[in-house]
Design brief:
With 230 residues, the protein is of the alpha/beta class. It has ten helices and six strands. Helix 9 links the parallel strand 5 and strand 6.
């Protein structure tokens, strides 16, 4: 293999560290319904999903009607926007992204909304460096299914994933990227390194600021893609 084909980034917990705000927003929306959403439960069961899938699953798990889903979803997004209005991409992570963009195609694969992702990338002046951005609106089956990664790779003209690297913060995200054929670097901003390695991450670091471009690109040539099918 002559070199890496692409680097794909998860968004929440990777490019920005905002998972706490998502949990708090869901918690606040569900509390009036008598649902107590603990952080450990949120991480283990719901974090990997996009907002709509997560909230629908939360309601069903609690034995509640999903009819008010859209109203609750809109409220959750308002609460999150208020809590996360100061969230920014770490300048060290932004420098890393720009360094990679000079050498390889980049993409974002996220369960966040397009509006949320675009706002953060615009503030960081990073939107133009990503060749593709796949968000919640783009796929019917969110992570841990590999659909988002497969779509991003197709849009980059790189179906199959071999030689591409994904950077993820959750076991479900790691499994999704592996199923799409990507090597995976885990960042332990949300889950313990052991959980990310068990899911299939080749390497785990504390966050993007702990990585250099050469370290990320070298993972493509060292790691075979997953043979798991989804």
């Amino acid at each position: 293999m002559s070199g890496p084909r692409a680097v794909l980034f998860d968004f929440n917990g990777v490019l920005i560290e905002d998972e706490t705000y998502h949990w708090r927003a869901f918690r606040d929306v569900l509390a009036p319904l008598g649902v107590r959403l603990r952080r450990a439960r949120y991480n283990a069961r719901y974090l990997v999903f996009d907002d709509r899938t997560a909230l629908r699953t939360m309601l069903r798990d609690a034995g509640l009607d999903t009819a008010p889903l859209e109203r609750l979803l809109a409220r959750k997004r308002r609460v999150y926007a208020r809590l996360a209005r100061r969230v920014r991409v770490d300048p060290r992570a932004a420098r890393l992204v720009r360094a990679l963009a000079r050498r390889v195609p980049l993409g974002v694969v996220s369960g966040a909304t397009r509006r949320e992702v675009a706002a953060v990338l615009r503030r960081a002046r990073l939107r133009g460096v990503f060749g593709v951005v796949v968000t919640a609106e783009d796929v019917r089956r969110p992570k841990p299914r590999p659909d988002g990664y497969r779509l991003a790779l197709r849009r980059l003209g790189l179906p199959g994933g071999r030689g591409s690297v994904a950077i993820e913060d959750s076991p479900g995200g790691v499994r999704a990227a592996r199923a799409a054929g990507c090597a995976v670097i885990g960042v332990s901003t949300t889950f313990r390194p052991k959980a990310l390695r068990r899911a299939g991450a080749r390497r785990v670091v504390p966050g993007l600021s702990a990585l250099r471009a050469d370290q990320i690109l070298s993972n493509a040539s060292r790691t075979r893609p997953s043979r798991r099918r989804s």
